[in-house]
Write a structure and sequence with these properties.
The protein has three helices and seven strands, in the order H-E-E-E-E-H-E-E-E-H. The protein is α+β, with helices and mostly antiparallel strands. It has a single domain, classed as Alpha-Beta Complex (Nucleoside Triphosphate Pyrophosphohydrolase), CATH 3.90.79.10. Strands 1, 2, 3, 4, 5, 6 and 7 form a seven-stranded mixed β-sheet that branches. The mean pLDDT is 92. Keywords: DNA damage, DNA repair, DNA replication, Hydrolase, Magnesium, Metal-binding, Mutator protein.
Length: 157
């Protein structure tokens, strides 16, 4: 794997981050999967987001991502992360904790999306459609960063 997970988490710890969160840009060609949070959720109800969630004690970032994707979208295959992509942003959780989200990217494996009760719907969007979403600015920036890197890989690959 191209990501040095220990360096990522050590950097977050040095910065005073006390919650590690993982997310995924799951892509199918130029389309990215986004989920809509339940309206009953206590944190950002009804907003659209990338699949994501907090790491549990003892999990590294990839283990946490595999668990979260299994829980949120029914992903059962081994993760094949895109090399060289990890985007981060910091935020304050609903309970006031300092969190850093580490977002990786991977191609959709064709498995039908099976949502958990945390989400009410999903859709596939292109980066051109970001203005028509309720994604946070941080998630929009993550998708744009991914799209820029994907375009560069296509031009040089």
């Amino acid at each position: 794997m191209d990501h040095d997970l220990d360096l990522l988490t050590q950097g977050a710890d040095r910065d005073g981050i006390d919650k590690h969160v993982v997310g995924a840009v799951i892509h199918n060609d130029r389309h990215v999967l986004i989920l809509r949070r339940s309206g009953e959720d206590g944190f950002l109800p009804g907003i659209e987001e990338l699949p994501s969630g907090g790491a549990e004690p003892g999990e590294d970032l990839v283990q946490a991502l595999a668990r979260e994707l299994a829980e949120e979208v029914g992903w059962r295959q081994p993760l094949q992360l895109d090399p060289g992509f990890v985007a981060t942003f910091d935020y304050t959780t609903g309970s006031g904790r300092r969190a850093r989200q580490f977002t990786f990217s991977l191609a959709h494996d064709g498995t039908p999306i099976s949502l958990s009760a945390e989400h009410t719907s999903h859709r596939w969007i292109t980066p051109d459609e970001l203005a028509h979403t309720t994604l946070t600015a941080e998630s929009k920036n993550t998708i744009m960063t991914w799209a820029g890197q994907a375009a560069s890989r296509l031009q040089t690959g």
